[in-house]
Design brief:
With 204 residues, the chain is mainly α. It has helices at 2-5, 10-13, 23-30, 32-63, 84-111, 123-153, 161-191. The chain has one domain (42-191).
């Protein structure tokens, strides 16, 4: 609607049809059901992703206090503190916790939105894009943390690294296959070029 609106004479925007509707009012009336369907879909998607994000937050928060190998009884520091893999575990755990917390907040923002007509143009898609992106990042970081912790526990048995790495990539791959096309479509429709030729003269 805004693409067309930018190309027509300003007076046409305020003109009325035979039923007494302006173009904006007619557009809103004809797309009322589509807006309800969009609201229902976004709430369902946000609810499902919020559950996944909350689970990751819970797991990562608990994992940071139950580090692999335990703590030294005398000093209280983790036993594997000087191991490179332990630092990988800590960093990936923290990144997963922060990114999943961000995704949960974004999805909660979607669930608590007023769902006004203008919100569907940029506000809601932006929250969905950020939520899905941070959720994907948190899943990837969680798998890295899990792999690092498992390799620390099985210290010296590097032959298990390849199957662990392959299995850790399964949920990441599945998430990409299921959600990445949606993420790309939403990004293009929100921030990509319009549906009409940008060289066309527009009314200011």
């Amino acid at each position: 609607m805004q693409e067309v609106e930018s190309m027509v004479h300003p007076k046409i925007k305020e003109s009325f049809n035979d039923d007494g509707f302006t173009p904006r009012q007619l557009f809103t009336k004809n797309h009322k059901d589509l807006m309800k369907d969009g609201e229902k879909w976004m709430k369902g998607t946000a609810t499902s992703c919020t559950v996944v994000g909350a689970l990751i937050v819970t797991i990562m928060f608990a994992a940071i206090f139950t580090v692999p190998g335990g703590n030294n009884q005398e000093t209280g520091f983790p036993i594997f503190l000087n191991e490179n893999l332990f630092m990988v575990f800590i960093i990936s755990n923290a990144l997963s916790l922060f990114s999943s917390s961000t995704s949960v907040l974004m999805f909660l923002g979607i669930l608590t939105s007023r769902y006004a007509e203008d919100d569907f143009l940029e506000s809601l898609p932006r929250k969905m894009i950020i939520g899905l992106s941070t959720l994907f990042f948190s899943i990837a970081a969680m798998m890295i943390a899990f792999s690092a912790a498992l390799l620390l526990m099985l210290h010296g048995t590097w032959w298990i690294f390849i199957p662990v790495f392959c299995l850790a990539g399964v949920p990441i791959t599945l998430f990409i296959l299921m959600q990445f096309p949606l993420l790309v479509d939403m990004f293009i429709s929100t921030y990509g070029p319009g549906i009409f030729d940008k060289k066309m003269e527009r009314w200011v």
